[in-house]
Structure formats: structure tokens, C-alpha cells
Specification:
Layout (H helix, E strand, L loop, with lengths): L4 E5 L6 H15 L6 E5 L5 H8 L5 E4 L16 H4 L5 E4 L2 H6 L4 H13 L3 E6 L3 H5 L3 H12 L12 E4 L13 H20 L1 H4 L3 E5 L4 H8 L6 E4 L6 H15 L2
Parallel strand pairs: 1-2, 1-8, 2-3, 3-4, 4-5, 5-6, 6-7, 7-8
Helix pairs in contact: 1-2, 1-11, 5-7, 7-8, 10-11
The protein binds 2-phosphoglycolic acid.
Length: about 260
């Protein structure tokens, strides 16, 4: 069985002090839900403080991006080995990075491979834009994103990889994809693409999250879908009550 996995993407929110305070309050609230893998992804500068607060709590920490080079003249970037020992996960290819920082499928692939080489677990985000959905390009776009991201990643490497389906039109907009759409893309496009690449047995073990305006009110609908293994959460991850409820609903719906 695939363990449910919920990650909170804090984006560019919370100072170091705010992050540590939030993590301190969050930890006891989430303590009981050990059947769900629980992750928070604060901004880079707060990673050390949050990792310190959450050590021995079972709640894991993720970064929001990683560069592919080991070191060098790459001003503003963070290398994989800088995250080693600090975080377990790293979000790669988030739609805001794709949209605002001209992220490409090729770079997503380089980051993914570099993360895996350094023992970091990538959460690779894929998803179509509004215009692409309207033009019926969802299948082509998402398939290409998944294939490009995983180019050169072995079947063994896939044990460390999480995919997040985040339709761009549903990120931070309050507009969520219906459970039907999430199911069509995750169960009908992403998992079959993984099966084509690695075989059905491997594809069945890869965890796939839904992301995009996930909140306590719609969480159960997504978690009820057998192919959806969790959520990548933005706005609702910044609120103690909401994030706690999301984890609770995941645990209940998945029966863990
Ligand atoms: P949202 O963000 O939940 O605020 O839509 C999701 C994400 O960007 O990961």
C-alpha cells in the first residue's frame, strides 16, 4: 500500500521566527497521525530552524527547490549537498517556478537527477495551464512533463520520487480541479505514463499527490480517489487548524 503523503508548501511566507513558532505549534497537533507522511516546506532561510524544531517529531522537512550543480558561480542558488541532512524532500518544477522563473522541463530533469544523487526525495510538480486545458492539450503537456522530468531516472530511483499534479489554473486561485479531473489526470494520464516508462508494478508504488486550492472542505473528495495518494498544499498549509484538518482527513479517508 502507498503511504498517504501530505506536504505543505509555505512558498515565500513566514520569517525564520514565524516558521519556528508555527512548527512548534504544529508538531503536537500532527503527532497522532503517524500513518500519513507529513512534510512542511518552509523558505530556505527557515529550513534549519524548522528542522531543529521538528527533529524527533516524525514530521519531515522539504525545500522548495534545488540547483543541479554541486557548487560554483551560481549566485542565489542552493546546491543539493547544502540540503543534505537538513531536509528529506525537495519540491521541483513547481508551477510558480515554471511560470515566474522560466523553469523548463530540462532543468526539472537536471534538478531531479541531482536531488536523487544526493539522497534527496523529489516532489516533482506537473500540470497544464488554463489555455492548454481549453485547447485539449492536457494529456500531451502532462505526459511530456512527466517523461522529461524522469529522463534517465532508474526504476530504483522511482522509489524516492513523488509526483504532484498541480493544474496551473488551480494554484492559489481558490479554483480547485474537480475530483473527476484529478482522477482523470492522475489515474488516467500520470500513472499510465509511469507504467509505460517503468512497468505497472513500479507505477503502482509511486505516490501521486493532487495540488491546487486543497482545503479541509474538498480534501476528502480527493483522498477518496484510489490513485490520489496525498496533497501538495499551499494556502491551507499556512494555517494551523486547516493543515491539521487536512492530515486528519487524509488519515480517516485512507484508513491509516
Ligand atoms: P494552493 O497552492 O494550495 O495555495 O493552491 C498549492 C501549491 O502551490 O502547492
Amino acid at each position: 500500500m502507498r503511504q498517504p503523503i501530505i506536504a505543505g508548501n509555505w512558498k515565500m511566507n513566514k520569517t525564520i521566527l514565524e516558521s519556528a513558532a508555527f512548527a512548534t505549534e504544529l508538531a503536537p497537533r500532527l503527532a497522532a497521525f503517524t500513518g500519513v507522511e507529513r512534510i512542511v516546506c518552509p523558505p530556505f532561510v527557515a529550513l534549519a530552524a524548522v528542522a531543529d524544531v521538528l527533529k524527533d517529531t516524525g514530521i519531515k522537512v522539504g525545500a522548495q527547490n534545488v540547483h543541479w550543480e554541486k557548487n560554483g558561480a551560481y549566485t542565489s542558488e542552493i546546491a543539493p549537498n547544502m540540503l543534505q541532512g537538513l531536509v528529506e524532500y525537495v519540491i521541483i518544477g513547481h508551477s510558480e517556478v515554471r511560470a515566474n522563473l522560466a523553469e523548463t522541463n530540462e532543468r526539472v530533469n537536471k534538478r531531479t537527477k541531482a536531488a536523487l544523487e544526493s539522497g534527496l526525495k523529489p516532489i516533482i510538480a506537473v500540470g497544464e495551464s488554463d489555455a492548454q486545458r481549453s485547447a485539449s492539450e492536457t494529456e500531451a503537456v502532462v505526459t511530456a512533463q512527466v517523461r522529461a522530468a524522469l529522463d534517465g531516472v532508474t526504476a530504483a530511483g522511482m522509489a524516492q520520487v513523488v509526483i504532484a499534479y498541480e493544474p496551473i489554473w488551480a494554484i492559489g486561485t481558490g479554483k480547485s480541479a474537480s475530483a473527476q479531473i484529478a482522477n482523470e489526470v492522475i489515474g488516467g494520464i500520470i500513472r499510465p505514463t509511469l507504467a509505460a516508462l517503468y512497468g505497472g508494478a513500479v507505477a503502482d508504488t509511486v505516490r501521486i499527490q493532487y495540488g491546487g486550492s486543497v482545503k479541509p472542505e474538498n480534501m476528502a473528495e480527493y483522498m477518496a480517489l484510489p490513485d490520489v495518494d496525498g496533497a501538495l498544499v499551499g494556502g491551507a498549509a499556512l494555517k494551523l487548524d486547516d493543515f491539521t484538518q487536512l492530515i486528519e482527513i487524509a488519515a480517516q479517508t485512507k484508513g491509516v
